[in-house]
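# nightly structure sweep
# worker-07 picked up a monomer target from the shared queue
# config: single-sequence mode, recycle default, output format = structure tokens
# input follows
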Amino acid sequence: MSRSSKKGPYVEDSLMKKVQNMVKQEKKKPIKTWSRRSTIFPEFVGLTFEVHNGKSFINVYVTEDMIGHKLGEFASTRNFKQHTGNRKD
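# output follows
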């Protein structure tokens, strides 16, 4: 279920502060975050985030196409190995 349109998009306050500080700096280091539920804003474009997937941190480089999506969508929590079944060798 999506968030109510009258509330608007959500972003963690601490994450937004980190983004604003990183935009002011020359060096662009990855921003480590556990906030998978935060919406990607236009200010995030060109930055790299380390999004926690429950076990490790996944690097996510934000592009313009990602605006409006959640950070967690780009850091998969499951690893697909392969379907099982009869294998003819």
